[in-house]
């Protein structure tokens, strides 16, 4: 996996230079992590636009190296919907048994995932910060109601990428 920050017009040449160095040693397809807004944890719709715009630029580039694209930096609850609106989000490799043939065509860009990092820590952190203070260490497992709430938030976020609708967290009880 290579983390690739958006560096403007030079992003493609940087990506190709990295790939040319790695290519002799690659035994599989690479995962390019596209950092639209590195380490942001932003929650608004606008925050994910940079990440999606970066993916759009790379998806249409004819000279990009093979590999999966994963969005990161600026990703949040609006990212999966934004990718779908741009026609970039695929959850399966339809009509092809050969991953390389799908990835070789810029018109069939394949987003391999979304890294939620800072945003996920922020939403789950709210639950963790509500844990009652005790003397000595405490874990979320000691507070089942908070654990269920944190799991519901995490599943709600991951479900947007995995194409399932999480069960309302009250159903876990």
TrEMBL record:
Pfam families assigned to the protein according to its UniProt record, in alphabetical order: LdpA_C (PF12617)
Domain of life: Eukaryota
UniProt domain Iron-sulphur binding protein LdpA C-terminal: residue ranges: 2-159
UniProt-listed InterPro entries: Fe-S-bd_prot_LdpA_C
Name this protein carries in UniProt: Iron-sulphur binding protein LdpA C-terminal domain-containing protein
